[in-house]
Amino acid sequence: MVDLPDVRARDIEGLARSFRYFGEVETSRLDSDTDTAFSLGIAQDPELLAMASGIAPGQPAPNIFFAAVQDLLLADPERSLAARALARFYPAVSGEPIPAQSPWPAFRVFSLEHADALAARFRSGRTQTCVVHRCAIVLPALASLPRVAAAGGRIGLLELGPSAGLNLRLDRYRYRYAYEDGRGARVDWGNEDAKPLLRCEARGNILPPVPPPRGRGAPRPRPERHRARGSPGPQVDARIDLARARRACARDGRSARPRGDFPIEIEEGDATREIEDRIAKLPIDVPRVLFATHVVYQISPEGVLAMFDAIARASFAAPIDLVIMDSTGRGDSRLDHIAFEDGERKSQNILALSDSHGRWIEWRRQA
Question: Which residue ranges form the domains of the chain, and what is each CATH number?
Fold first, then answer.
Protein backbone atom coordinates (compact mmCIF):
# COMPACT_ATOMS: atom_id res chain seq x y z
CA MET A 1 0.00 0.00 0.00
CA VAL A 2 1.24 3.50 -0.80
CA ASP A 3 0.62 6.75 1.00
CA LEU A 4 -2.09 9.12 -0.20
CA PRO A 5 -0.67 11.17 -3.10
CA ASP A 6 -0.90 14.89 -3.68
CA VAL A 7 -3.17 15.07 -6.74
CA ARG A 8 -1.85 18.57 -7.47
CA ALA A 9 1.72 17.33 -8.02
CA ARG A 10 3.09 17.65 -11.54
CA ASP A 11 6.72 16.71 -10.93
CA ILE A 12 7.77 13.26 -12.12
CA GLU A 13 8.08 11.79 -8.63
CA GLY A 14 4.71 13.15 -7.50
CA LEU A 15 2.98 11.92 -10.66
CA ALA A 16 4.54 8.49 -10.26
CA ARG A 17 3.13 8.36 -6.74
CA SER A 18 -0.34 9.30 -8.02
CA PHE A 19 -0.36 6.62 -10.71
CA ARG A 20 1.06 4.02 -8.33
CA TYR A 21 -1.66 4.79 -5.79
CA PHE A 22 -4.30 4.63 -8.50
CA GLY A 23 -3.05 1.22 -9.61
CA GLU A 24 -2.50 -0.29 -6.18
CA VAL A 25 -5.58 1.11 -4.45
CA GLU A 26 -8.26 2.62 -6.70
CA THR A 27 -8.36 0.29 -9.72
CA SER A 28 -7.79 -2.83 -7.65
CA ARG A 29 -10.93 -2.00 -5.64
CA LEU A 30 -12.88 -2.05 -8.88
CA ASP A 31 -11.27 -5.27 -10.17
CA SER A 32 -10.06 -3.34 -13.21
CA ASP A 33 -7.00 -5.29 -14.32
CA THR A 34 -6.65 -3.18 -17.46
CA ASP A 35 -6.54 0.16 -15.66
CA THR A 36 -4.27 -1.35 -13.04
CA ALA A 37 -1.80 -2.32 -15.76
CA PHE A 38 -2.01 1.16 -17.29
CA SER A 39 -1.51 2.87 -13.92
CA LEU A 40 1.45 0.82 -12.76
CA GLY A 41 3.01 1.00 -16.22
CA ILE A 42 2.86 4.80 -16.34
CA ALA A 43 4.21 5.01 -12.78
CA GLN A 44 7.47 3.47 -14.04
CA ASP A 45 7.66 5.17 -17.42
CA PRO A 46 9.52 8.52 -17.56
CA GLU A 47 8.21 9.39 -21.03
CA LEU A 48 4.55 8.95 -20.16
CA LEU A 49 5.02 10.67 -16.82
CA ALA A 50 6.49 13.63 -18.69
CA MET A 51 3.37 13.65 -20.87
CA ALA A 52 1.16 13.56 -17.77
CA SER A 53 2.87 16.69 -16.42
CA GLY A 54 0.85 18.63 -19.00
CA ILE A 55 -2.47 17.72 -17.37
CA ALA A 56 -4.34 20.77 -16.10
CA PRO A 57 -3.45 21.73 -12.51
CA GLY A 58 -5.86 20.50 -9.87
CA GLN A 59 -7.11 17.60 -11.98
CA PRO A 60 -6.43 13.95 -10.98
CA ALA A 61 -3.79 12.89 -13.49
CA PRO A 62 -4.76 9.20 -13.87
CA ASN A 63 -8.43 9.99 -14.56
CA ILE A 64 -7.58 12.64 -17.16
CA PHE A 65 -4.91 10.50 -18.86
CA PHE A 66 -7.18 7.48 -19.24
CA ALA A 67 -10.19 9.56 -20.25
CA ALA A 68 -8.13 11.32 -22.93
CA VAL A 69 -6.88 8.02 -24.36
CA GLN A 70 -10.38 6.56 -24.43
CA ASP A 71 -11.87 9.71 -25.96
CA LEU A 72 -9.27 9.68 -28.73
CA LEU A 73 -9.80 5.98 -29.31
CA LEU A 74 -13.59 6.28 -29.44
CA ALA A 75 -13.32 9.14 -31.92
CA ASP A 76 -11.55 6.92 -34.48
CA PRO A 77 -10.47 3.40 -33.44
CA GLU A 78 -9.13 2.87 -36.99
CA ARG A 79 -6.88 5.92 -37.00
CA SER A 80 -3.68 3.86 -36.84
CA LEU A 81 -2.23 0.42 -36.28
CA ALA A 82 -1.57 1.48 -32.69
CA ALA A 83 -5.24 2.43 -32.26
CA ARG A 84 -6.45 -0.89 -33.63
CA ALA A 85 -4.07 -2.74 -31.32
CA LEU A 86 -5.26 -0.85 -28.24
CA ALA A 87 -8.95 -1.03 -29.20
CA ARG A 88 -8.88 -4.77 -28.50
CA PHE A 89 -8.67 -3.93 -24.78
CA TYR A 90 -11.75 -1.70 -24.87
CA PRO A 91 -14.87 -3.90 -25.19
CA ALA A 92 -17.00 -0.79 -25.79
CA VAL A 93 -14.95 -0.28 -28.98
CA SER A 94 -14.17 -3.82 -30.08
CA GLY A 95 -17.36 -5.53 -28.98
CA GLU A 96 -15.20 -8.44 -27.84
CA PRO A 97 -13.92 -9.69 -24.45
CA ILE A 98 -10.58 -8.30 -23.27
CA PRO A 99 -7.71 -10.51 -24.50
CA ALA A 100 -5.82 -12.54 -21.91
CA GLN A 101 -2.57 -10.61 -22.31
CA SER A 102 -1.06 -7.44 -20.96
CA PRO A 103 -2.60 -4.27 -22.40
CA TRP A 104 0.36 -2.14 -21.38
CA PRO A 105 2.53 -2.42 -24.55
CA ALA A 106 -0.38 -1.38 -26.79
CA PHE A 107 -1.32 1.47 -24.43
CA ARG A 108 2.23 2.81 -24.32
CA VAL A 109 2.70 2.72 -28.10
CA PHE A 110 -0.64 4.43 -28.69
CA SER A 111 0.08 7.14 -26.12
CA LEU A 112 3.49 8.01 -27.54
CA GLU A 113 2.31 7.89 -31.14
CA HIS A 114 -0.61 10.24 -30.43
CA ALA A 115 1.12 12.44 -27.86
CA ASP A 116 0.12 15.75 -29.51
CA ALA A 117 -3.59 14.87 -29.68
CA LEU A 118 -3.51 13.67 -26.08
CA ALA A 119 -1.69 16.81 -24.92
CA ALA A 120 -4.57 18.98 -26.16
CA ARG A 121 -7.02 16.87 -24.17
CA PHE A 122 -4.76 16.97 -21.11
CA ARG A 123 -4.84 20.78 -21.10
CA SER A 124 -8.62 21.05 -21.33
CA GLY A 125 -9.78 17.86 -19.60
CA ARG A 126 -11.92 18.02 -16.47
CA THR A 127 -13.22 15.10 -14.43
CA GLN A 128 -16.95 14.40 -14.46
CA THR A 129 -17.35 11.34 -12.29
CA CYS A 130 -20.34 9.31 -11.19
CA VAL A 131 -19.66 7.56 -7.88
CA VAL A 132 -22.80 6.22 -6.25
CA HIS A 133 -20.79 5.07 -3.23
CA ARG A 134 -20.37 8.76 -2.28
CA CYS A 135 -24.01 8.62 -1.20
CA ALA A 136 -22.69 6.84 1.91
CA ILE A 137 -21.05 10.16 2.82
CA VAL A 138 -23.91 12.43 1.79
CA LEU A 139 -26.62 10.48 3.67
CA PRO A 140 -25.21 11.14 7.18
CA ALA A 141 -24.83 14.81 6.29
CA LEU A 142 -28.51 15.07 5.39
CA ALA A 143 -29.46 13.13 8.53
CA SER A 144 -27.49 15.59 10.67
CA LEU A 145 -29.30 18.70 9.42
CA PRO A 146 -31.71 20.01 12.11
CA ARG A 147 -34.10 21.45 9.54
CA VAL A 148 -34.40 18.12 7.75
CA ALA A 149 -35.00 16.27 11.02
CA ALA A 150 -37.68 18.79 12.04
CA ALA A 151 -39.45 18.30 8.70
CA GLY A 152 -39.71 14.55 9.20
CA GLY A 153 -37.32 13.77 6.38
CA ARG A 154 -38.97 15.85 3.67
CA ILE A 155 -36.38 17.73 1.68
CA GLY A 156 -35.89 19.72 -1.49
CA LEU A 157 -32.60 18.63 -3.06
CA LEU A 158 -30.50 20.42 -5.64
CA GLU A 159 -27.33 18.68 -6.77
CA LEU A 160 -24.51 20.65 -8.34
CA GLY A 161 -22.31 18.84 -10.81
CA PRO A 162 -21.85 15.19 -11.63
CA SER A 163 -23.74 11.92 -11.21
CA ALA A 164 -26.45 12.18 -13.88
CA GLY A 165 -29.04 12.01 -11.14
CA LEU A 166 -27.84 8.75 -9.58
CA ASN A 167 -26.85 10.39 -6.30
CA LEU A 168 -30.32 11.90 -6.07
CA ARG A 169 -31.55 8.35 -5.60
CA LEU A 170 -29.69 8.06 -2.31
CA ASP A 171 -32.87 7.07 -0.43
CA ARG A 172 -33.26 4.05 -2.74
CA TYR A 173 -29.98 2.41 -1.71
CA ARG A 174 -29.04 0.35 1.33
CA TYR A 175 -26.20 1.38 3.64
CA ARG A 176 -24.02 -0.34 6.20
CA TYR A 177 -21.62 1.50 8.52
CA ALA A 178 -19.31 -0.58 10.69
CA TYR A 179 -15.87 -0.51 12.27
CA GLU A 180 -13.39 -2.70 10.44
CA ASP A 181 -12.20 -4.31 13.66
CA GLY A 182 -15.75 -5.27 14.67
CA ARG A 183 -15.93 -2.98 17.70
CA GLY A 184 -19.10 -1.07 18.45
CA ALA A 185 -22.51 -1.35 16.88
CA ARG A 186 -23.17 -1.71 13.18
CA VAL A 187 -25.59 0.75 11.59
CA ASP A 188 -27.75 -0.33 8.66
CA TRP A 189 -30.14 1.96 6.79
CA GLY A 190 -32.48 1.37 3.88
CA ASN A 191 -34.99 -1.25 2.84
CA GLU A 192 -33.64 -4.77 3.17
CA ASP A 193 -34.22 -5.53 -0.50
CA ALA A 194 -32.66 -2.26 -1.72
CA LYS A 195 -29.69 -2.44 -4.07
CA PRO A 196 -26.87 -1.70 -4.16
CA LEU A 197 -25.64 -2.23 -0.61
CA LEU A 198 -23.12 0.54 0.08
CA ARG A 199 -20.66 -0.60 2.74
CA CYS A 200 -18.76 2.17 4.50
CA GLU A 201 -16.06 1.65 7.11
CA ALA A 202 -16.54 3.82 10.19
CA ARG A 203 -13.39 5.39 11.61
CA GLY A 204 -12.82 7.44 14.73
CA ASN A 205 -15.06 7.29 17.78
CA ILE A 206 -18.44 8.34 16.36
CA LEU A 207 -20.68 6.33 14.08
CA PRO A 208 -22.20 8.55 11.40
CA PRO A 209 -25.86 9.50 11.88
CA VAL A 210 -28.58 8.10 9.61
CA PRO A 211 -32.25 9.06 9.25
CA PRO A 212 -34.64 7.38 11.72
CA PRO A 213 -36.41 4.19 10.59
CA ARG A 214 -39.98 4.27 9.44
CA GLY A 215 -42.13 1.35 8.30
CA ARG A 216 -40.29 -1.43 6.52
CA GLY A 217 -36.55 -1.16 6.83
CA ALA A 218 -36.03 2.59 6.80
CA PRO A 219 -37.61 5.82 5.70
CA ARG A 220 -37.27 7.44 2.37
CA PRO A 221 -36.58 11.14 2.80
CA ARG A 222 -39.16 11.83 0.06
CA PRO A 223 -36.99 14.44 -1.61
CA GLU A 224 -38.24 16.84 -4.23
CA ARG A 225 -35.21 16.38 -6.43
CA HIS A 226 -33.66 18.75 -8.86
CA ARG A 227 -30.20 18.68 -10.33
CA ALA A 228 -28.32 21.66 -11.63
CA ARG A 229 -26.18 20.24 -14.37
CA GLY A 230 -23.40 21.77 -16.34
CA SER A 231 -20.30 23.83 -16.16
CA PRO A 232 -19.68 24.58 -12.48
CA GLY A 233 -17.56 27.67 -13.11
CA PRO A 234 -16.56 30.15 -15.79
CA GLN A 235 -13.18 28.45 -16.29
CA VAL A 236 -14.49 24.91 -16.12
CA ASP A 237 -16.60 23.11 -18.70
CA ALA A 238 -17.73 20.01 -16.83
CA ARG A 239 -21.01 19.45 -18.65
CA ILE A 240 -22.15 15.89 -19.16
CA ASP A 241 -22.97 15.04 -22.74
CA LEU A 242 -26.21 13.15 -22.07
CA ALA A 243 -26.30 11.79 -25.61
CA ARG A 244 -22.83 10.34 -25.08
CA ALA A 245 -23.95 8.89 -21.74
CA ARG A 246 -26.89 7.24 -23.46
CA ARG A 247 -24.62 5.76 -26.13
CA ALA A 248 -22.21 4.44 -23.51
CA CYS A 249 -25.03 2.91 -21.46
CA ALA A 250 -26.61 1.39 -24.55
CA ARG A 251 -23.47 -0.62 -25.15
CA ASP A 252 -23.94 -2.55 -21.93
CA GLY A 253 -27.73 -2.59 -21.91
CA ARG A 254 -28.27 -0.01 -19.15
CA SER A 255 -30.51 3.02 -19.23
CA ALA A 256 -29.00 6.47 -18.89
CA ARG A 257 -32.10 7.82 -17.16
CA PRO A 258 -32.71 6.65 -13.59
CA ARG A 259 -36.03 4.96 -12.94
CA GLY A 260 -38.33 5.92 -10.14
CA ASP A 261 -41.52 7.71 -9.22
CA PHE A 262 -39.87 10.91 -7.97
CA PRO A 263 -39.47 14.15 -9.90
CA ILE A 264 -35.97 14.77 -11.23
CA GLU A 265 -35.18 17.76 -13.41
CA ILE A 266 -31.80 17.83 -15.12
CA GLU A 267 -30.70 21.17 -16.49
CA GLU A 268 -27.56 22.56 -18.03
CA GLY A 269 -26.17 25.70 -16.53
CA ASP A 270 -23.33 27.57 -14.90
CA ALA A 271 -23.62 27.31 -11.14
CA THR A 272 -21.57 30.47 -10.65
CA ARG A 273 -24.11 32.53 -12.58
CA GLU A 274 -27.41 30.65 -12.60
CA ILE A 275 -27.69 28.89 -9.25
CA GLU A 276 -30.06 31.49 -7.81
CA ASP A 277 -32.58 30.75 -10.56
CA ARG A 278 -32.27 27.00 -9.94
CA ILE A 279 -32.78 27.43 -6.19
CA ALA A 280 -35.94 29.42 -6.87
CA LYS A 281 -37.48 26.27 -8.38
CA LEU A 282 -37.17 24.38 -5.09
CA PRO A 283 -40.24 24.30 -2.84
CA ILE A 284 -39.96 26.55 0.20
CA ASP A 285 -42.35 24.53 2.39
CA VAL A 286 -39.60 21.90 2.94
CA PRO A 287 -35.92 22.31 3.87
CA ARG A 288 -33.87 23.36 0.86
CA VAL A 289 -30.58 21.50 0.61
CA LEU A 290 -27.86 21.83 -2.02
CA PHE A 291 -25.07 19.28 -2.28
CA ALA A 292 -22.03 18.61 -4.42
CA THR A 293 -19.53 15.75 -4.50
CA HIS A 294 -16.08 16.54 -5.89
CA VAL A 295 -17.19 19.54 -7.92
CA VAL A 296 -16.38 22.73 -6.02
CA TYR A 297 -12.61 22.19 -6.10
CA GLN A 298 -12.77 22.62 -9.88
CA ILE A 299 -14.33 26.07 -9.69
CA SER A 300 -12.14 29.17 -9.56
CA PRO A 301 -12.03 31.08 -6.23
CA GLU A 302 -13.93 33.91 -7.90
CA GLY A 303 -16.55 31.47 -9.14
CA VAL A 304 -17.01 29.93 -5.70
CA LEU A 305 -17.43 33.37 -4.14
CA ALA A 306 -20.02 34.31 -6.79
CA MET A 307 -21.89 31.07 -6.17
CA PHE A 308 -21.93 31.56 -2.39
CA ASP A 309 -23.13 35.14 -2.80
CA ALA A 310 -26.00 33.91 -4.99
CA ILE A 311 -26.94 31.23 -2.45
CA ALA A 312 -26.93 33.85 0.29
CA ARG A 313 -29.29 36.06 -1.72
CA ALA A 314 -31.59 33.09 -2.31
CA SER A 315 -31.72 32.45 1.44
CA PHE A 316 -33.84 35.58 1.94
CA ALA A 317 -36.83 33.51 0.78
CA ALA A 318 -36.05 30.55 3.06
CA PRO A 319 -32.95 29.04 4.73
CA ILE A 320 -30.57 26.93 2.64
CA ASP A 321 -28.18 24.19 3.72
CA LEU A 322 -25.17 23.47 1.50
CA VAL A 323 -23.31 20.14 1.85
CA ILE A 324 -19.97 19.84 0.05
CA MET A 325 -17.88 16.68 -0.25
CA ASP A 326 -14.65 17.74 -1.86
CA SER A 327 -11.04 16.74 -2.32
CA THR A 328 -8.46 17.75 0.23
CA GLY A 329 -5.78 17.44 -2.45
CA ARG A 330 -4.20 14.59 -0.49
CA GLY A 331 -6.22 11.68 -1.89
CA ASP A 332 -9.08 11.85 0.62
CA SER A 333 -12.11 14.12 1.06
CA ARG A 334 -13.70 16.52 3.52
CA LEU A 335 -17.41 16.94 4.19
CA ASP A 336 -18.53 20.48 4.98
CA HIS A 337 -21.87 22.00 5.91
CA ILE A 338 -22.59 25.68 5.26
CA ALA A 339 -25.83 27.27 6.50
CA PHE A 340 -27.33 30.29 4.72
CA GLU A 341 -30.18 32.35 6.15
CA ASP A 342 -31.53 35.88 5.80
CA GLY A 343 -29.06 36.69 3.06
CA GLU A 344 -25.99 35.65 5.03
CA ARG A 345 -23.64 32.72 5.45
CA LYS A 346 -24.49 31.90 9.07
CA SER A 347 -22.09 29.05 9.83
CA GLN A 348 -19.66 26.54 8.37
CA ASN A 349 -18.70 23.24 9.99
CA ILE A 350 -16.53 20.28 9.05
CA LEU A 351 -18.78 17.23 9.44
CA ALA A 352 -16.41 14.43 8.46
CA LEU A 353 -13.35 13.22 6.64
CA SER A 354 -13.81 10.41 4.15
CA ASP A 355 -12.45 8.29 1.38
CA SER A 356 -12.86 10.06 -1.96
CA HIS A 357 -15.13 7.26 -3.19
CA GLY A 358 -17.11 6.88 0.03
CA ARG A 359 -15.59 3.65 1.33
CA TRP A 360 -14.78 5.03 4.79
CA ILE A 361 -15.94 7.95 6.89
CA GLU A 362 -14.62 9.59 10.07
CA TRP A 363 -17.55 11.52 11.49
CA ARG A 364 -16.68 14.68 13.41
CA ARG A 365 -19.81 16.55 14.47
CA GLN A 366 -23.45 17.34 13.83
CA ALA A 367 -24.40 20.19 11.51
Answer: 12-124 (no CATH), 132-363 (3.40.50)
